[in-house]
Amino acid sequence: MLDYYIGLMSGTSLDGADGVLVDFSGDKLRVVAAVTEPFADSFRAELLALNTPTHNELHRAALAANQLAAVYARVVKTLLIEAGAQGITPEHIGAVGAHGQTVRHQPQRTSLDAEGAGYTLQLNNPALLAELTGLDVVADFRSRDVAAGGQGAPLVPAFHQRIFGRADSTVAVLNIGGISNLSVLPRDGEAPVLGFDCGPGNALIDAWCLQHTGQPFDAGGAWAASGKLLSGLLASLLDEPYFGQAPPKSTGRDLFSLAWLAEKLQPFAAERPEDIQNTLTEFTASACIAGVTGYGKDSKELIVCGGGAFNRHLMQRLQAGLPSLAVTSSATHGLPPLQVEAAAFAWLARQAVERQPGNLASATGAAGPRVLGAVYPA
User: Fold this and answer.
1) Among 20, 117, 131, 373, which residue has the fewest nearby CB atoms (within 10 Å)?
2) How far apart are CA 8 and CA 70, in angstroms?
3) Residue range 50-59, pLDDT digits in tens
4) pLDDT band at 111 (very low <50, low <70, confident <90, very high)
5) Rounded to whole angstroms, how far apart are CA atoms 238 and 348?
6) Contacts of 111 (CB under 8 A, 6+ apart)
7) Structure letter (DSSP) for residue 189
8) C-alpha–C-alpha distance, residues 309 and 42, integer Å
């Protein structure tokens, strides 16, 4: 059985594609190479537009999927060049795990029959990616979990347990991408692993920053830190029924969209943009803190990954709201924040090739463990 797998991830932040080549041969995984290719502004805008119903969207979605496959293929090519310098050839690669770009996430069933099943949709063209790379590709990871009655998300808790779980204490892992998701990893044998989406991560913060500063993200949270908290706006943002739902649950841009934000901001149109940025950052922190205190209160540490781990102001707000936990970056545990999600999909590809389950029913709500993903041979 081959031990090297590639993972490709482009998340709800819509900032680019992350790729890693992972060696699973040892007791601990080893990232052999890592590459990120940012999305062109025009491509990012098209993906954002396709998150909501739009003109001629089926044709545009198909073209965007082809463009994403081309980006993925360039990432794979660069990874293989770096791997080749270490004597690792394409023949050593078990498969490429390609998540795709989520543009719809509606996992809730509308009835008990098959026609009422939920769905989740990731733009991708894995057949084209297999053609371009000459490697086996595993894709469409989420739909089998949804078919089994699950949310299709989050899928990373099983991976988090493998690399961050401890025998002697409970650990929480928080991924802050466009949407934030939490994994609670109980110490060995105590309880099932729990995982769910907390709510918005960087999606609204980044969108507001781009609109008012022209920058794609608030570097270090400095702009947010320059503003003040608008308590009335924060209360309005948190007054969303999603936050009252019990796990398993998942969400996305379908709910926390720019239209949702615009409606919430109407009574606050006269407020300073930096104060709204401060409040949006506090909103993300509050949703994450509520998830940890509600379901991971026994945790000794909160390990943060994703782009949000680089937002110093956000990390400080998390620590202030969770004084009994050590809030740390995943980098302190050997895996940089922007490599965790991609590595997870390398692991999920390996699980699929070996016909092993990739989901945790305790996290997604599926009827049971399922082998996730479809294989597209080279």
Assistant:
1) 131
2) 12
3) 988 888 999 9
4) low
5) 33
6) none
7) T
8) 26
